[in-house]
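User: Hi! I'm a student and our assignment asks us to look at how structure tokens line up with a sequence. Could you show me two examples?

Assistant: Happy to help. In each example below, the sequence comes first and the structure tokens follow. Example one:
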Amino acid sequence: MKLDNIEVSAVIVPPGRREPNMARVREIAESIRRVGLLQPIVVREQAHGYKLIAGRHRLAAVTLLEEPFIDAFLFKGDDIGQRLAEITENLHRADLTALERDEQLAEWIRLTEAQQVQSFQSETIESKRVDGKGHRQEGGVNAAARDLGVSKADAHRAMKVSTLSESAKQAARDVGLDNNRTALLKAAAVPVDRQAEAIRQEAEARKKDNKARNEIIRDDHTEEFAEWLYQHGGQELPSLISWLEVCKPKEVIEALRRISRGAAA
């Protein structure tokens, strides 16, 4: 890929892309302000402007800084190569659910296999002409292990999750199990026409289990938790008590999960 410096206003973000996370955009903008853009975006030149392939947050950060130009790699590959580059970029995002990640990884594997068919067809014909033998294709799972750094077992599990019916995938999103790979794999193991119902049943069973567990925690550990807060609250304890009276625990839990995912990324 060729490196160039292009106008920010000429970069076109394809429809359907997620809106960037503005907290992440501000972090990148601050980094660019201090040390510059270390990783150029990737674009594909078209009749009018450049189509963005990778670097949505970097582009948004440069736009936030009101910079007129941005470093970009000009992608010269075909449509399959372009989509592979997009997926590779997406797989490095921390905010993908387990379902989204597996769908992306499975698509990468299938496209890689399609690309291999295209590239090996002529080579195989020529090889058979010479020695009567053909080249054996590597396979998308092996390529994923090599190029994406995922294990073969992980790639196989992603392929299995990706076979879920669309109704099952939507059911997983509706009941909050789209980020639970164990539940997704469990549903993928049943007949297609029963997968959506299997997801809903799993969610209901987990809800009952959580309710029972929470009741045990409340019964057995409320005093211990209050003691822990007392010991760690210090001078802030009155404010903490006031905050606990008005806070929304579910929102706090979700915020903590987001922070944990970001720290682990």
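Example two works the same way, sequence first and then tokens:
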Amino acid sequence: MFSGHPKPDPVGPGQESVWSYPRPPRVEQSSDSVEVWVGGERIALTTRSWRVLETSHPPTYYLPREAFVDGALRPADGSSYCEWKGMASYLDLVGGGRVAPRAGWFYAEPTRGFEVIAGAVAVMPAAVDRCVVNDEVVRPQEGGFYGGWITDRVVGPFKGIPGSWGW
């Protein structure tokens, strides 16, 4: 449990600290190999995605819709608002006879600066079988609300852990 401002973890070779990410966040193109698995099936694979990087959060990956197999994306009820990216719509992710309800989201008309992710799909790692980046299985960001993808490439501490509400 943290109180006050956290102390960033040490950064090793080939790593980046989420405490060096900006606020407001930035979006950057990525050539990482990214996979999403639901129901024991790989429903998405790409080497063309975008990472949204925000202070204290592990990256959130946005995949182009063509990365998903046919039938893997199904519109879901509800929406939410991000102060940085605008209004999000939700998707159920479908694979292997399993439905991961509202496990994906996208911005049809993102705000200025985030236009490149228009229509691209982000995935909540905790809601699917697994997400994989460059052959490493992603660890979901804690908190149940956040969609960050934790790999050995990033160090925290990460927002979402107990005591991090005010970060």
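Here is something you could point out in your write-up. The mean pLDDT is 95.
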